[in-house]
Amino acid sequence: MSADEPEVRTTAGVLRGEGEPGLAAFRGIPFAQPPVGALRFGAPRAVRGWDGVRKAVAYGPPPPQASAFGMDALSQDTGDDWLTLNVWTPDHGSGAGLPVMVWLYGGAYTIGMASLPEYDGGRLAREGVVVVTLNYRVGIEGFGLIEGAPANRGLLDQVAALEWVRENIRAFGGDPDRVTVFGESAGAGSVAALLAMPRAAGLFRRAVAQSVPGTFFSAELAADFAGAFADELGLRPTVADLGSVAPSRLPAAGDAVGASMRRSLKRWGPVAHTSVPLAPVVDGDVLPVDPWQALADGAGRDVELVVGHTRDEYRLFMALGGMIGEVTEGQAAVALEVFAPGREDAYRAAFPDAGPEELYELVNSDWLFRMPSLLLAEAQVGAGGRAHFYELTWAAPGMGGGLGACHGLDVPLVFGNLSGGLPAILLGETPPPEAEELSAHFRSAWTGFASGEGPGWPAYDLERRLVQLFDTSPAVAAYPEEAAREVWRGHVFGALPLGG
Fold it and tell me: Domain named Carboxylesterase type B: which ranges (predicted)?
């Protein structure tokens, strides 16, 4: 064994990784058996051991992907060993006892893979933590409610990876009693779900949820979507029928349903306006209750929490849809009616100078990310738990500079990967110096929190409502979206019903 070819012994066998400056990296480590064949649509099964030394220098193949951003092409003919993870450690001595940070990617529960360059954990690990990234099943494979299969298989994959961490991370220099899960968008929704899942209890001590989506499905809504997926294929939504479809073909059915959701507004309610037909399912078993109720009942009282959102969450989606500068008064009125029924006048009164575009952006941002994030923190605090809150207010300089502090901007800042991967586009061809400074602040806060020292600003409470504002000059201030918070006072997020 050498510094260039570090080795560790796990419960399944010996792994040989590769040395990087100041680090050892191990990629493509199986944490469960490939979920194909007889194991397809099942809960993850324990990985089989191996003899000798297994190379761990290449990422494992991603799970089947939807077509968004061309992700489907990245998962074609790459193999079926989807359930793998990756570890970066600055000290793989078994007695190092470093904090551990486990990343869950976003992607609307339909795309995502740990091998994307934006999720390289090297720079974050150099802050003195062990970083773990992992693949979990997305799309119908991971979140479709299929007869004869457990619900929320993607979440069960995450639990299996966390169990692997508990059993093995000490060999990589990590402390299994100091594990922090962190994720953005669908990854933050996954973090929220894990807080509510009995199967995940005790597997992590801290959690960071960046832009929590409010979309959790009732079993009835999820079953109706599953029927629509199966209809696209002329099949029933059962393990027997869908198991006959090649994994690479299944995401196309999800894409087709997503593209036609607006035809079923009465059937599917507000989520039909999102074109995202998959989400965690409040099934009463794997996910007994929604995260807001679970935290209000005290489920997260023993877990320290950081939650936050960006200021202009929905601006990115408007840009991708060609809507910036194009929103009509009619479109704004529909958005208010769909996402904030009964609060339309309150919105207009709270933001009297807002035109159609601003109102449209505000209500979409609030319903989808901002208020779900805030109310998750308030549920935690209200039950006697501890939460820290933040808002990213620094405007993205990339793509012409018109995106504001948009969704996803925090990802390159947290990882420090400012010039690689899709989110780096938000920073421009040459990231400005303030991006590097802000990234250093994010990394220090996240790793400080993971170490047990706190993120560097006061805990959120229901009186002062102090939050960290991430900008060129980071500051602690009262929550800046007070007008929106007042509009949403009394709203309860939970499982979305069939029929809206």
Answer: 5-455
